[in-house]
């Protein structure tokens, strides 16, 4: 005789609720080229509004006029040189900010002494907008390339530090107890447990950092730049070339969106072992 064991009603209901939530909030099937659906929709609305006259050219240049201006800047002006100059500033500043922020976060997150020395000044810096420090940076470094790179580096340093530090502090203390129990050295503990545990926070900080680097780039290139997208926009503003201004803004936007997409894709590859709703 076979006896059927039924789960308690409350347990069955709880299981069913979890299944419903998972079905509603679960990852589902990945949509191909999902990153580009939003921008494509925005471009379609922009084109439709310009074609129907809803968006006046005095308010926003039509996308086809922007494409013509882009071609003119590429053929008759040094658009490629301006793009490369802006990319150089952004990449160097971002790299310095990311490296410095990550190192400070590790020192602060793994040591009480390091936290007491580092975390306070970083939080003070966090409350002071970096862009407000530009006049001081000009007095220190002049209005050349150094001032622009330092500004971008400081803007990107804060999100990297904050999110990496939070990632380190959120690691379960049981792992440290387990490492002591089985005799894992400090170096192996940091390499195999601490750094992988802080990686999600670091990647989240990277998403904020790349966006912040674009914000800093837009601002610093307004200060005596002789090359770069900001320099092109400044000249276009003087001559009333709205279409060229929009070209520069679109390039800034493409920079930031591509960088953010690259970080997201990297996170999916590196953190494949973590099942999240984003996946």
UniProtKB/TrEMBL annotation:
Residues passing through the membrane, by range: 33-55, 87-107, 127-143, 149-168, 189-210, 244-265
Sequence ranges assigned to domain ABC transmembrane type-1 in this UniProt record: 83-263
UniProt keywords, alphabetically: Cell membrane, Membrane, Transmembrane, Transmembrane helix, Transport
GO aspect biological process, one term: transmembrane transport
UniProt xrefs under CDD domains: TM_PBP2
Primary subcellular site in the record, as a coarse category: membrane
Compartments where found: Cell membrane
Family stated for the protein in its record: Belongs to the binding-protein-dependent transport system permease family.
Identification of the protein by name: Sulfonate transport system permease protein
Organism encoding this protein: Actinoplanes lutulentus
């Amino acid at each position: 005789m076979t006896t059927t064991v039924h789960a308690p009603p409350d347990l069955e209901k709880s299981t069913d609720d979890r299944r419903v939530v998972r079905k509603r909030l679960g990852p589902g099937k990945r949509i191909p080229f999902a990153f580009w659906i939003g921008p494509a929709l925005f471009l379609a609305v922009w084109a439709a509004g310009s074609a129907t006259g809803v968006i006046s050219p005095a308010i926003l240049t039509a996308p086809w006029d922007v494409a013509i201006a882009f071609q003119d800047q590429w053929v008759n002006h040094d658009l490629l040189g301006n793009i490369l100059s802006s990319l150089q500033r952004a990449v160097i500043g971002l790299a310095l900010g990311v490296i410095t922020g990550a190192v400070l976060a590790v020192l602060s997150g793994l040591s009480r002494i390091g936290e007491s020395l580092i975390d306070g000044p970083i939080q003070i810096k966090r409350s002071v907008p970096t862009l407000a420090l530009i006049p001081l940076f000009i007095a220190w470094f002049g209005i050349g390339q150094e001032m622009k790179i330092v500004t971008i580096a400081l803007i990107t340093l804060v999100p990297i530090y904050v999110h990496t530090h939070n990632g380190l502090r959120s690691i379960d203390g049981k792992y440290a107890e387990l490492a002591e129990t089985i005799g894992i050295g400090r170096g192996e503990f940091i390499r195999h447990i601490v750094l992988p545990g802080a990686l999600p926070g670091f990647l989240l900080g990277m998403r904020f950092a790349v966006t912040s680097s674009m914000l800093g780039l837009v601002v610093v290139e307004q200060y005596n730049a002789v090359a770069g997208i900001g320099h092109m926009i400044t000249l276009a503003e003087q001559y009333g070339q709205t279409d060229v201004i929009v070209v520069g803004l679109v390039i800034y936007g493409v920079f930031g969106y591509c960088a953010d997409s690259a970080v997201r894709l990297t996170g999916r590859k590196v953190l494949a072992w973590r099942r999240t709703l984003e996946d």
